[in-house]
Design goal:
Elements lengths: L5 E4 L2 E6 L2 E10 L2 E12 L2 E12 L3 H17 L5
Antiparallel strand pairs: 1-2, 2-3, 3-4, 4-5
Length: about 80
């Protein structure tokens, strides 16, 4: 598994979280583009998705980005990680 934030392609990235990986990607579901953020686990060398995650319409990407920036500021204001 690779390091945190490693880019897999222009539309996919992964973050190592303990023994699991979170993959952020643009995918299609019933013909509609979705932003999918999901935990994956390693099954004998193959990453497989879990039910843990969210899938949003790509139109919500900018709104989610703003929310995450606000969350990052709140974490920094608390002195970082705890």
């Amino acid at each position: 598994m690779s390091k945190e934030g490693t880019r897999l392609s222009p539309w996919q990235a992964k973050i190592q979280v303990g023994s699991q990986v979170v993959i952020v990607q643009i995918c299609q579901y019933f013909g509609r583009d979705r932003l999918d953020v999901r935990y994956y686990f390693d099954d004998d060398g193959t990453l497989k998705p879990t039910k843990k995650g969210i899938s949003l319409p790509v139109q919500k990407t900018a709104q989610l980005s703003k929310i995450l920036r606000r969350a990052e500021k709140a974490v920094s204001a608390r002195g970082g990680r705890k």
